[in-house]
Design brief:
The chain has 408 residues and is an all-alpha fold. 76% of the residues lie in helices and 0% in strands.
């Protein structure tokens, strides 16, 4: 008699993925919008050009600081509440940013950026929420599909910038008003999520590993390093891109088009990244992502024609996709359910900590490391080398470890 096993029921997971894809498309559009205009608005408000990208840096800093509290909220009250908190913060960030532009106040504008970081932190948990109700087989695909929702955001966000950046006498004020609307209307999507709230811990609930024990697990440590480097390098280069494009004689619309191509490249591969991970293994896909990131730097260093910007930023997006989704899949399979809040909050704290440093460095490298935009752009891309070396070395070490040496 032959035994047959039925395929796992992923209907609940697929419903949640659909909701998260929609949220990624609508609410996620604010991220490319702010990354396009944040540095340009900062440049118009800051008295020191080295601080032009400080608004972007504070968004990432806010995301880093909010990662652990947002994760704790989701662990205690569920994903829905955490995502609504994020959307509320995104609306407030847009409102205060608009008010700062209206007054011409850089400090107030920076406060709005910091609050926007709370949304960015909650947005980062979409990928983990996709995995919550998915089977082991469907998990990489669920994460990948949700990330693919950014494809619509990549189109919607920059087009909104083109329509709104000069809609008022004060440049970019209309863009921040649009950010408020996206958060207000998009937040209703979260009421359609069906993700159980984690059970409250009891005396019999396994406590799981401590944060230090989790970090000592080789697979978790390498996943965090690769996610941190993939995201930090993407942010380092993308933050400086509008400044570099405009500084090299092209228009703000050209900068928006370059960022559009970049964000499309970030998310288009998501339609098949999960399948590639399932077929070839997560380590090989992460390694491919790091190699493509290196290729982006090489292309950027070849010249500052518009074509160079387009190709470099497209490669940057593809490399981020493979590296970050691969690292996320590696992490999601390396901890238990009762360790979820602790592990995911710690991961995003560390990842966005690295991204914060990269974002802060981006403005300094771009505007203050040379006498021209070309020299600044060169410095930004050369800064990729040590981080790629770190992540590549860590991944190679993990792949060469004996199979029985892994503790997870």
């Amino acid at each position: 008699m032959t035994m047959t096993t039925s395929a796992p029921d992923n209907s609940q997971a697929k419903r949640n993925v659909a909701v998260l894809v929609a949220a990624q498309s609508v609410l996620g559009a604010q991220m490319p919008m702010i990354f396009i205009v944040g540095g340009l608005a900062g440049q118009s408000l800051a008295t020191n050009p080295c601080l032009a990208t400080l608004p972007i840096s504070l968004i990432v800093l806010g995301s880093m600081l909010a990662a652990t509290p947002i994760s704790g909220i989701m662990q205690k009250w569920g994903r829905k509440v955490g995502f609504l908190v994020g959307a509320t913060a995104g609306a407030l960030g847009g409102l205060i940013g608009a008010y700062g532009l209206f007054l011409g106040s850089f400090p107030i504008f920076l406060l709005g950026s910091l609050l926007t970081g709370i949304y960015m932190s909650a947005h980062g948990f979409y990928r983990f929420a996709a995995a919550d109700t998915a089977s082991d087989e469907f998990r990489p695909k669920a994460i990948s599909y949700v990330m693919a929702g950014g494809l619509a955001a990549a189109v919607i966000g920059p087009q909104i910038v083109k329509l709104t950046s000069e809609a008022y006498v004060i440049p970019f004020l209309g863009t921040y008003m649009a950010v408020i609307a996206l958060n207000v209307f998009g937040s209703g999507l979260f009421f359609f999520l069906d993700i159980p709230t984690p059970p409250k811990p009891t005396a019999d609930t396994p406590r799981g590993r401590s944060r230090l024990e989790l970090l000592k697990t080789p697979r978790i440590a390498v996943a965090i390093i690769c996610a941190m480097v993939s995201y930090a390098l993407m942010n380092l280069v993308m933050t400086s891109t509008p400044l570099a494009v405009v500084g090299c004689g092209f228009s703000a619309n050209d900068a928006a088009d370059v960022v559009t191509s970049h964000v499309l490249a970030m998310y288009v591969p998501s339609f098949f990244t999960g399948h590639l991970i399932a077929r070839f293994g997560v380590e090989k896909i992460v390694a491919l992502g790091l190699a493509i990131l290196a290729g982006a730097g090489v292309v950027a260093l070849q010249g500052v024609e518009l074509g160079n910007f387009f190709v470099a930023l497209i490669l940057l997006g593809i490399g981020w996709n493979f590296g970050f989704i691969g690292a996320t899949s590696m992490l999601a399979a390396s901890h238990e359910v009762h360790e979820r809040g602790r592990m995911q909050g710690l991961n995003d704290l560390l990842v966005f900590g690295g991204v914060t440093v990269a974002s802060l460095a981006s403005g300094g490298l771009m505007n203050c490391s040379g006498g021209s935009p070309v020299e600044g752009w060169t410095a930004v891309n050369l800064a990729m080398i040590p981080l790629l070396t770190l992540a590549g070395g860590a991944l190679l070490w993990l792949m060469l470890r004996p199979a029985d040496a892994e503790t997870v």
